[in-house]
Amino acid sequence: MPRFTLRLAAPDDVSPEEAASSFYWLASQRSSFTPGVGPSLGLLGEVRPLNVDFARVALTVFAADRSVGRERGGSNWNQREFELEIPVSDASVWQVVADELAGVIGFLSGDRWTLTFTSAQSPSEAVRLPGSTVSPKRVVLLSGGADSAIGALHSRSILAAGERHILLSHFGNHMLAPIQQRVAAEIERLIPGREQQHVVIHLGRREKRLDGSLYPTEPTSRSRSLLFLALGLAVASIYDVPLWIPENGFASINPPLGPERLGSLSTRTTHPAFLEGLSSVLRKIGAHGTIENPFREATKGEMFQQVIDLVGVSEASRFLSSTHSCGLTGQRAHHISPEVPCGICFGCVLRRASFVASGVTDTTAYIAPSSDPAVRRWLDSRSVEQQVRNFVRRGVQARDLATLGLPQSYPLRDALDLCQRGIKELGSLYP
């Protein structure tokens, strides 16, 4: 079982054994992580200590997830087992919820986690002062995808005069940063006269360990969203305001495309059970954990319609086409920019269907269809289009949703109605 320890200091000489089992979050260039954000989160401001702790948990989980490969084939999400040791402000507080938090993280990643905590003093860091005297109404996660862009646009549209919000973006892949910045700028243009701050964070595990050896790299990174949430909550904790994580409810419920798949997206980032479970754990120990998905009951096409209502169909086409919802990797191997979406992963298929269902023109340049035989073979091997066609023909029943772990606060009849509306939108792409 892989075991990793997060360390906030490092000796001059690190043995290969310690380098292989440790992640070092340091203020110096020797850090295991990209520079800029230190382990006390001073760059973000006066973050609550328990939310600083949670960011350390999330970063350690993310780094471990990235460093242990999954076995291919089989079911049960290629489950792995991890043991993590994490330094926090008060280990006794976190140890009380260790098993419950491990279960929530496991629900997200499909793995089994064992968490232990040690008490450690936070390294001293300069703390960034607030950029405005006006407290924000909310913090909104802005990934660069269509759903988060719509959430940020909607948030800005409901701000009253003199109010503001904060958009928070995180990236590991550098190609995402300009997309996020472009979307934020478009939101300012489309909804003028409101105050907006865009915080962009580059935080990820480096390729090399402290001893110079290479980390193994697992490309799936289902836990990246945990880090995104932790950073968003860190900023929201400064002002004691909600964190919005906008995503259409159909994808959040994540109905399986077929009996052999755990879910259509193989992710549970905004699954109601995950968000409620995480909020519950954080509240129990006094950390800030107010998380809201304003589109929990909406399909993606219905979200697209909200953009039309706000800015008109022409601007909606321009705005939504500028977002990036692709979940496929491997473009570089075919000399294609990773910024170009594939068109055949579930994220792209659902996006294309939402354009058709809402009547908005999609000007996105997808890789598919391609005239290059090698690219065609690669796309065919990754495509979910046939599974989606089968899913649309088969439909979804209440018994299918009963296995998805929905919380008691989410009535099954509401989930069934939402899924049927989502399937109807997918059907508009495959009549």
List the helices and strands and how they pair.
Layout: E1 3-7, H1 16-21, E2 22-24, H2 49-67, E3 81-88, H3 91-96, H4 98-109, E4 112-119, E5 139-141, H5 146-157, E6 164-171, H6 176-190, E7 195-202, H7 224-239, E8 243-244, H8 249-253, H9 272-285, E9 291-292, H10 300-311, H11 313-321, H12 346-358, H13 373-382, H14 385-394, H15 398-401, H16 412-429
Parallel strand pairs: 1-2, 1-3, 3-4, 5-6, 5-8, 6-7, 8-9
Helix pairs in contact: 2-7, 4-9, 5-6, 5-10, 10-11, 10-12, 12-16, 14-16
Protein described:
- With 431 residues, the protein is α/β, with parallel strands linked by helices.
- It has helices at residues 16-21, 49-67, 91-96, 98-109, 146-157, 176-190, 224-239, 249-253, 272-285, 300-311, 313-321, 346-358, 373-382, 385-394, 398-401, 412-429, and strands spanning 3-7, 22-24, 81-88, 112-119, 139-141, 164-171, 195-202, 243-244, 291-292.
- Helix content is 42%, strand content 11%.
- The strands form two sheets. A five-stranded parallel sheet has the order 7-6-5-8-9, sandwiched between helices. Strands 2-1-3-4 form a four-stranded parallel sheet.
- Strand 6, helix 6 (176-190) and strand 7 (195-202) form a beta-alpha-beta unit.
- Helix 5 runs parallel beside helix 6 (176-190).
- It is globular, with a radius of gyration of 21 Å.
- The protein starts with a strand and ends with a helix.
- Mean pLDDT is 92; it is low at 260-265.
